[in-house]
Each structure stands twice: as C-alpha cells, then as structure tokens.
Design brief:
Largest sheet: 7 strands, mixed
Radius of gyration: 22 Å
Oligomer: single chain
Number of strands: 13
Strand order of the largest sheet: 2-8-7-6-5-3-4
Helix content: 25-40%
C-alpha cells in the first residue's frame, strides 16, 4: 500500500463500518489503539447499566430477576456472541472469567481420555493458559504439560495427548493458528482442542462449528467492548455437552436451582457451566455492547482489519524504517489477528511518550509495542496520524525524557 493521509481519507470515505464509530463514547483528541486490552465504552452499555442500576435494581429490586430477565442474561448474551465465533446459539454461555472458564473446561476435558497423560500447549501462550494448565495437571496424578513452539504443534500431536490448549491469536505477536488444521490433526490422534479466543472474537472471522472445534473460551472486554472485567464466554460443541461435567458444581449450574435440592443434578446443555449468581451489572453492559453486531458483516470487519494493518505496516516500512523497529506480526492476513506488534529495545518509554501525545497503545515484556486494530471504531486516518506522532517522537528523541522511564504496575 502507498501510505499517505490522502489514502487513509479515501479508505475512510468508502468504509462500510464508518457509522458504527458513532456508537462509541471515545475521548476527544485520543487515538485509541488498545482495544485488544480494553474496548471503549458504548452508548448502549452506558444506558443499559444506568437502567439496571436505577430502574431494575433501584425500583424493582429482587423482582427484576424475573421482570427484567436477569436470570436469562448468561444465555441471551451467549446467543449474541455465537454468530461472531461460528457457533450455534445454544452452544455459548457467558459466565465467570476467562481463567475460571479455562479451568472448568480443561479439567472436564481430561476426563474424556483418562489414560492419556499430556496437555499440549504453545510455549509463550498467554500466562493464564499456562498457569491453569499447570495447576490442573498438578491435581491429576501422572498428567504433564508439554510446551512446544508454534511450528512444532502438529508434529507434537500424538496418542499421548488428551487436550490441546491454544490461543487462536497470540497475545504478544498477533500470530494466528490454523484452527481447522489443528482440530483435524488433534481428532486424528484422539485428542480434543480447547481454544482461547480472547484476541479473536470480534476481531477476525471465527468458525468453531465449521472447523470442528470442541471447546472454546473468550474474553468479554477486549474486542467485544463489554467493560473492564466483563464476564467471559465459553463454547461446548453439541457432541460434548452431555458428556462433560462442570468440576465446580455451583447452584446456578443445577438443573433446577430454585428447587434447592441437597444433591447436584447438572442442567442440560451449556447451562451446566454456570457456577454462582450471574453478575448482572457487568452482564448488562456486555449484552448491550453486543447490540451493534447484529448489523455488522464479519467480512467487512476482516477487510478493514487488513487495510488498517497494511497502512500501519507501510509506515514502518517507510518513514519509520531504520529506527530500530522490528515487525513481529505476520504480514499474511490469514496468519494474524487484528493487531500489529513491533519489537524495539526502548519499547517502554516510546509507548509512554506516545500515550502522552494522545496515542494509546500498550507494552508487553520484554520489548514489544502492541497496537490493537479495532475495525468498529478505528479510522484509517487514526492509524496515519498515530504513525505521524510516533515519527515526531523518534525524530525529537522525546521518549528519552525521565518521566517516560519508570514502569507502571499495569502496562
């Protein structure tokens, strides 16, 4: 792509998603490139939370479990996510956090093949995926976690593997796995695959059912814009729903929670994966944030993601070339998610200087600058202007100032 602001303006003029930006409450004069960590507030979420606070809770009190449909929010919100990940509407549930959902599904999946002793994962996977895999293995005598490099996964799949735990898109580099190929190879050796869609759902097309996926989890507060700490989602294929049992047998996963029986009976289908009382306020925010997706084509999202990436990559190939940046995100569209990541030996202070100039990206240890390319609200001119400000920071050496050196607790 020939990079220029005129090119960016032309792409924005032809953008079928342009009007969606108006549904977000974005701060003025800020270019937000961190939606892969926390999506911005939507007007719909603000209205939904206010209604839940003032009317449903404030006026109706406990009646709102029935009158406002609070009790149905985990399934109804899952039904809004299902089309974005290629799942059936009865196969997705919103509950708990990504980490808790990973624990539940991984512990359950190991019971499918009690004679197999290996959880296979990628070296450099997101820490939660690694920590939970280790924790589950430590509670199962003889079970081990095998970590291999991404290019060795297919060869590592053998008859010893019970479950494969993978992030569809790597959080640091943005590299994407071939879901269909890994599912097929795993099934050929009798293993199941548990996908982490935290950096996929709402960012790129995902086809769980079409690719033969077994299990998946995902995040509600990144590309789905549900708000800080929004509940996560999980997917269980129809073939496994009656075979797997939730290892955390909480009362909301019971077949009839309000029968208050002394002994657990799992609910049918994905409802058994609930544990405790649903977090209504955060669920209301996520449920409302998903409203725009009913009118959005994932093909348009994918196309714009490619355009945003190509425009930003052209800046690093051109004006920013020779300044120490190393692009680590694959250039092939089908091999990446919707982000661009670069290594630089001074990544931390450069990131802080950018934030001070109104361009919000993030830093990942040890030396990665990461920019989320979120097609629903990010404009092509935003990407161009961000590169312009970065060029100024590098030209002036502003990143060297003392105030940009000290690291924060949250990076």
């Amino acid at each position: 792509m020939q990079a220029s602001r005129q090119t960016a303006e032309a792409l924005d003029s032809a953008d079928p998603l342009a009007a969606i930006r108006e549904q977000f409450e974005l701060p003025p004069a800020v270019i937000y490139l961190d939606g892969n960590s926390l999506g911005p507030l939507t007007a719909a979420s603000a209205r939904a939370v206010e209604h839940s606070l003032r009317q449903a809770w404030g006026e109706q009190l406990i009646k709102s479990w029935n009158t406002a449909g609070w009790v149905d929010l985990p399934r109804q919100t899952g039904q809004r996510i299902a089309p974005l990940i290629g799942a059936g509407v009865d196969d997705v549930l919103v509950a708990d956090s990504t980490s808790v959902n990973l624990y539940k599904l991984l512990a359950a999946a190991l019971t499918l093949s009690p004679d197999r002793r290996t959880i296979l994962t990628e070296a450099g996977n997101f820490p939660t995926d690694l920590y939970v895999s280790d924790a589950v293995s430590q509670r199962r005598p003889g079970v081990q976690v095998r970590r291999v490099e991404a290019d060795g996964l297919l060869n590592a799949l053998d008859a010893s593997v019970a479950v494969v735990v993978l992030s569809h898109v790597n959080y640091r580099s943005g590299a994407r796995h071939d879901m269909a190929a890994i599912n097929a190879r795993a099934h050929a050796v009798g293993a199941v695959v548990l996908w982490d869609l935290a950096h996929s759902a709402g960012a790129i097309p995902v086809d769980l059912a079409g690719s033969g996926a077994d299990l998946a989890i995902g995040c509600g507060y990144k590309f789905l814009n549900g708000g800080p700490g929004a509940p996560a989602f999980l997917y269980v294929s129809p073939q496994l729903q009656d075979r797997l049992h939730n290892p955390i047998a909480g009362w909301f996963g019971h077949a009839n929670p309000f029968a208050f029986e002394d002994h657990y009976r799992p609910a049918p289908g994905v409802d058994r994966w609930q544990v405790g009382t649903p977090p209504v306020l955060s669920l209301a925010s996520l449920h409302a944030a998903l409203e725009p997706w009913s009118a959005i084509s994932m093909a348009d999202v994918a196309q714009k993601s490619v355009q945003l990436f190509d425009l930003m990559a052209a800046c690093f190939d051109g004006p920013l070339a020779g300044l120490g940046f190393d692009l680590i995100t694959p250039r092939q569209a089908e091999a990446r998610g919707s982000q661009i990541s670069l290594r630089h030996r001074h990544a931390w202070p450069i990131c802080q200087a950018l934030i001070a100039e109104g361009v919000v990206g993030d830093f990942r240890t040890p030396d990665v600058l990461r920019f989320g390319l979120t097609p629903l609200y990010l404009r092509h001119v935003d990407v161009w202007d961000a590169c312009e400000r970065l060029s100024q920071i590098m030209a002036t050496g502003r990143w060297r100032l003392p105030e940009f050196q000290a690291q924060h607790r949250v990076t």
